[in-house]
Amino acid sequence: MTTTIELNSGAQLPQLGFGTSQAATPAASVAAALQIGYRHVDTAQMYGNEAEVGEGIRASGVAREDIFVTTKLHNPNHDPADARRTFTESLRRMGLDYVDLFLIHWPMPFLQIDYLHTWETLIELRDSGRAASIGVSNFQPDHLDRIIGATGVVPAVNQIEVHPYFANNEVREFAKSHGIAIEAWSPLGKGDELTDPVISGIAERLGRSPAQVVLRWHIQRGDVVIPKSDREERMRQNADVFSFELTDTDMAAIAALDRGEDGRRSAHPNVLGK
Ligand code: A2P
């Protein structure tokens, strides 16, 4: 159902994942998604649903080793001792003895604790075998440069906001030039971009839904997507994006919708914590 991307850690990451941020029924939704065929689940300490995500994984009946599980370090937990302790708590909440990927959720450059030390702690966790791969989220090129320059360890992934109105190409290209895979969060722009006439026009021509067109656009750009839905019908629809293709003209038409910073749905990482 999905293609995979080889991470710089050697792990295989399914290009289609299931997002759980703001899931209304995380346990039931994760179980349904896995039964439909998703093999990659994304959660975070910040979402407050790791226990339910673990419950959904167990209820799905899908073998643990067949699922790629990601969680992320919450912003107040950047201190190395807190990062170690809360990582263990995350595993316990999920009922897992390892995660496939552990990310620093936000760089928080204005915290007193330097995210470089947090990154060094993630390297330790990786070396312990309890996080198979490690990476970051919402990092800008200067943040990436710092941690790579100081440790020599390149994150496997940078999970960033990407959707048609905020294509985030500068960060994507910088990361990709360093061998860092891009995961697009809010790939559907939280659903708001699905009524755009360019997207709905392409969808109509192809006999696909606007969400499928947007997800396919990400996939053809080589990014990983983690759409969220609590509705089974939409989970199925969002997973059915590997049996059709967008033309170069379609790809360019969607790329032209980019509004730069004005299209962003979140605060810029450099102002967080200010
Ligand atoms: P719901 O959970 O009710 O299905 P993103 O992943 O970009 O943050 O977008 C998630 C939002 O998009 C949610 O509000 C979700 O609503 C909605 N959504 C997810 N899949 C689809 C789809 N195939 N068609 C329309 N809306 C969707």
From TrEMBL:
Family: Belongs to the aldo/keto reductase family.
Keyword set, alphabetical order: NADP, Oxidoreductase
Residues the record lists as binding substrate: 105
EC number per UniProt: 1.1.1.346
Residue ranges occupied by any NADP-dependent oxidoreductase domain in the UniProt entry: 21-258
Active-site residues annotated for this sequence: 47 (proton donor)
Protein origin, superkingdom: Bacteria
Keyword Oxidoreductase among record annotations: yes
Name the UniProt record assigns to this protein: 2,5-diketo-D-gluconate reductase A
Group of enzyme by EC: oxidoreductase
Keyword Oxidoreductase: yes
PROSITE patterns: ALDOKETO_REDUCTASE_1
Site (Lowers pKa of active site Tyr): 72
Signal peptide start and end residues: none
GO molecular function: oxidoreductase activity, acting on the CH-OH group of donors, NAD or NADP as acceptor
